[in-house]
Design goal:
The chain has 110 residues and is mainly alpha-helical. It folds into 2 domains: 49 residues, no CATH class; 52 residues. The protein contains 4 helices and 4 strands. The strands form 2 sheets. Strands 1-3 form a two-stranded antiparallel ribbon. A two-stranded parallel ribbon has the order 2-4. The N and C termini lie far apart (62 Å).
Length: 110
């Protein structure tokens, strides 16, 4: 009788993957639950900031970032990738609603 190797269930696989992830130090407490990293390249104590295309300020902020990156001679492939992301954001914003930044007071992390 041949033994059949069982593959772990999706839940077990997910649990293993989640155990390797750590939460990032985001400014919003509500983002702490779902903004994670599976790599040790980001120190869990390093503050991070997440912008979404839904935010009306996303495009001008990313455009400013690209401008500074180019002025500082950041690798052209990196800048080109950022500009491609900027184009994607513009397309997304034309098709979806945007909003000004907001958050509930209790989500601030003081």
């Amino acid at each position: 009788m041949t033994k059949v190797k069982q593959t772990p269930s999706r839940t077990a696989t997910q649990a293993r993957a989640e155990s390797k992830q750590h939460r990032l130090n985001h400014a919003r407490k509500d983002y702490q639950r779902w903004v994670t990293s599976s790599t040790d390249k980001i120190d869990p104590t390093e503050p991070v900031f997440l912008l979404r295309a839904k935010d009306e300020l996303f495009i001008p902020i990313l455009q400013t970032y690209v401008t500074f990156a180019r002025a500082l001679n950041v690798d052209a492939l990196v800048c080109d990738s950022l500009e491609a992301h900027l184009i994607s954001a513009r397309v997304w914003q034309r098709k979806n609603k945007t909003k000004l930044p907001d958050m509930e007071y209790e989500t601030f992390k003081f």
